[in-house]
Amino acid sequence: MEQSRSIPSRRSFLKSSLLAGGGLLISFTWFPGAGIADPSKMNDLPEQWNELNGYIKITPDNIIKILNPNPEFGQNVMTSLPMIIAEELEADWQQIVVEMGPHDNVKLGPQFTGGSNSVRMYWKPLREAGAAARQMLIEAAAQTWNVPVEEVTTKAGMLYHEKTGKSGTYGSFASKASGIPIPKNITLKKVKDFKVVRNSQKNVESLKIVSGKPLFGLDYKHEGMLIAMIQHPPAFGMKLKTFDAGEALKMPGIKDVFRQQLYEDGYEQAGFDTRTFNDLLVVVGNTTWEVMNARKKLKVTWDPIEDSKETIAARGGKKEVVIPGGLESTSTHLEKMQEYAKKPAQQLRRDGDPETAFKNAAQVIERTYNAPFLAHNCMEPMNFFAYVTDEKALVVGPLQAPGWTEPTLSKILQLPADKIEIQMTRMGGGFGRRAYAHYLIEAALISKKVKAPVKLIYTREDDMTYGIYRPMYTATYRAALDANKNLIAFHVKGGGIPEHAIHANRFPAGAVDNYLAEGWEIPSNITIGAFRAPRSNFNAAAEQSFLDELAEVMGKDPIDLRLELLKKAKENPVGQNNEYDADRYAGVLNLVKEKSGWNNTENKKYSRGVAAYFCHNSYAAHVVDIVMQNGRPYVERVFSAIDCGIVVNPDAATNMVEGAVVDGIGNSFYGKLSHKDGAAEQNNFNRYRMIRHSEVPKKIEVHFVQNDIDPTGLGEPPFPPVFGALANALYRGTNKRYYNQPYFDEFLKQAGKPENKRSF
């Protein structure tokens, strides 16, 4: 058994109380000072900070209700998190009722869905909450039956005393248990004794999903609700000058057209307050169709923006961000990136003497990789409901980071936080896009202005052209070999618009004696945001493609080269800040090698590519098998090996990996957002290519490394290495290397075929 303190000093405390009508309520409560100011730090939290604030309610009729704290967008936390409580509580899973909790940063913490943190952050505290409740119920039964506590056992929501034959439900003792002090020391179950965790459970929302029950923000309705839309500038680098709403106001169902400022001049933004356009032109009416048609009647003139600076309270303190004026184009971006790549850059890490090693090398391999902006393209476009009065505010919709949105909303509306109610709906996709709540703030300001309940809706075109994209990246990799083709130095220099993607302390850092990592950035008025596995999604593509080419030059099998480097990193590591565990990294490579039959002769008909990557505390490796169909590459099979520690819900975890594989194939093959004179050249799916059902692999075989390590991330880690594995498979199928994303555009160029500007 694992001993655990249920009161982890200062950070949080357990509370018990009596429910109305009898019953037990167990909750973790955070002191206000224990909040985390910046979600980007959550990957680096020390273990003692990983505290949960979730409710367990047990009613007299033995219904156990668990409030899920984290917003759900398909990663299945609505099922997986309650499973952790049910495990330690020794509850019957069939008796569990799960509800999405409202935003409450005292009782439920930051409630941030992102960074692959949900299960990792809540693992131990949820176990403690379940175990504490179980112990209190045992003590209540022992007192009632007048028997020793150690003689009372539990199973599936029942309490038993074998010697007397007495038994009772949790619910029958819940009221008495509420008066028992929270145990200071609790015993957690051994992993080998798990009955709920590590066993697949069905999604608790499956029936609602398949039967079309209202779940999403777009489903939400409120009496007297109006619809609002915003007319954004037609290009980045422009702002509203004048407008004539005369014709629009004559349209049926239109209530108002007005100008609205989002942030006041000089407003200091928090880390997730990113927005693209600050001066808004708003149309409000009765229905979506009426508002869309009225918006087309607006007569608007626009002005170019000038260079400006904004202050952002970011990780490590405040920073000043430059927003350049001008209408930017992809062609100019590429020219600037080539220019900046030749200039000195910021040194991020240096081991040994890389300059001398390159100077004395018998052979130097150098390759440059590029990737475009990417749009998130959540299937449910941005939307939010708001009803704001002078006294209070109710906001409802899809949101990843309510805990970081509430302070901004409070400041903008000039309402205390306890007068703001945030309800989270299920999200139709997130991927980082819904961590930036400008659309919530916009809805709230519009409601306050028109003094009515309002739902703000973005069209697909609004969403795709608004910004908050995956940045545009480039990186140049160099490797130095001696006369015997041994790797003696490694250099990566990466840049981007407006940030670079380099993780300086990740593999192969720590495995090469002479190592140099550098980065540079170009300011832009095109806004960016977190995109599934930020930075890693490009870094893995470039790094793993380069390692594959390096292995070929060295005459080594690509998996063997990686394993040799990882062995060096384990036995004789270079440097002090290596982020990864070499054993776990090698573990996924060995597992995928075995499960894919990497060197088996029956697989020779496939063009095979491999890649592995570490991010968000987990390890992922893929083998991608490509065949040519009608002159086009098709990914027929993918083998995946994942080490994310204990897998709470295996079916759900497998689904998440499968989704990451499909998402990775689609983005690496087709994803591209380009600009001309500030305007996005793709504004809907007729021009922004997405993967289709017929292009999904016939087989995705997922394997998890079996260990008893506490859970680490899973939503993002399987995504980045798909890009590299696909590029390496394409090389073996076409005999040409792929340095520029999207790969299908590159394939068409190499095949001498014209690029398809449309997605059909």
Shape: globular
Percent helix, as a range, is: 25-40%
The CATH superfamily label of the largest domain reads: Aldehyde oxidase/xanthine dehydrogenase, molybdopterin binding domain
**How do the strands line up in the largest sheet?**
13-15-11-24-21-22-23
Number of domains: 3
Helix tally?
17
CATH topology of the largest domain: Aldehyde Oxidoreductase, domain 4
Parts with pLDDT < 50 across at least 5 consecutive residues: 5-12, 30-54
Q: Structural class of the secondary elements? A: alpha+beta
Average pLDDT, all residues? 92
Strand residue percentage: 25-35%
**Radius of gyration from CA coordinates:** 27 Å
What is the CATH architecture annotation of the largest domain?
2-Layer Sandwich
Quaternary organisation of the protein chains: single chain
Overall number of strands: 33
* CATH class category of the largest domain: Alpha Beta
Give the end-to-end Cα distance, rounded to a whole number of Å. Answer: 58 Å
Main beta sheet strand tally, sense and closure: 7 strands, mixed
Domain Aldehyde oxidase/xanthine dehydrogenase a/b hammerhead: 211-306
Protein name: Xanthine dehydrogenase family protein molybdopterin-binding subunit
Organism: Niastella soli
Pfam family, one: MoCoBD_2
